[in-house]
Amino acid sequence: MPATMSPSDSAMLFPAAPPVSASSGLTVTGDIIALRLVDVAYEMDLKEAERLWLQRQSDERSRPARASLSTTSPKAVSFGNPPLTIDLGIRHLVVGLATHEVAVAVRLYDFGALVIEIRRPVTDMLWQDFVALHDGIFTVLDNEETATVWRDILSTLRKTLLPCWKKPTDGSLQEDYQIAFVRHFNEPISIDALDTKIDIAALLSGETRPLSQQARRDLLRQRFSYYEDDLVILTWDRAFIIDARGDSDILDVLEVANAQLLEMRFYDELLDAELPRMYNMVEAARKRFDMYAPRRFATLARRFHTLVAEVTELTERVDNALQVTEDVYLARIYGAALDLFRVKAVSAAVDRKLDIVRDTYSALYEEAAGSRGQMLEVAVILLIMIEVFLALLHVEH
């Protein structure tokens, strides 16, 4: 009989919000990180992108670099094809009445995704101010009227890198994710006692009103910890990370999971648009039966076969963007992120639609072969009729 969780156990795992006085005087050193992921092309030539960017830039500090996982052994975790990182330096972001200096970087993935990272470092900032700034940045960057920084950066990149983008898109498909990254507090706090000091649920929800116990449980459900001083909590659009090592591989894992979601959404929408078009083309081809019917069926079949091959190749590249094998902790976080972002569900939908296209082009090949057979039969019958007619003419003469 499975064990049940008592109300007291639930309260221990998901305690009520701590009083405001509990976090007074507590300061944070870390980063507020905002990510915008944009699908810009079917695929990207990263070597050509590096060449184009170097040609544009004379400042060596902006020289692109290939990303690598910093704190985990290459044997445990590796990129299929490491993204290209471009440092865009410092920019200014207005949040409320204050102007903040933020570090901007871009990462390009070979499967057509582009990630813009905006990072606001904080040093010894009061927890309450950290939460307020986190929410303020989220509000500004989530509003298309105020978030001109996204458009400006994307426009700059498009002007320079467009030649290396194969089959460019309009960039309308996007995903946003925000991370509150804590390197350390000004006083030692065990992870077990953290919930009595700060209200993590409020940070992750962006709500100023007290949350219900049910809402807190839902927000804090995806919670991971390996050492006594580290913590990862994931939600659909935000994450809270404590890691004294600094920039950990967890950031890379979360970024790749979001990039995989973005690309799977792209292929899902692509197939959604292609299937009705496919049905219309097949119906139109079937309505016309003439000597060119086999060729039309074969042409359609080749087109659909090409679509399946192209999407299958690119989805496999997306699936293999990151390999996590021996680092169990990182693998758990990566798997949880894929489940939370519903990457596997969208991927399964893509596979189902690909199966429909496969079945269609197989049927078209069969119809093309059948139509050729029918045309041959008609030709044979006509030849026989001609021979009989000629024979009758010969007899009469």
From TrEMBL:
Highest taxon of the lineage: Bacteria
Keywords: Membrane, Transmembrane, Transmembrane helix
Residue ranges crossing the lipid bilayer per the database entry: 375-395
Protein name: DUF155 domain-containing protein
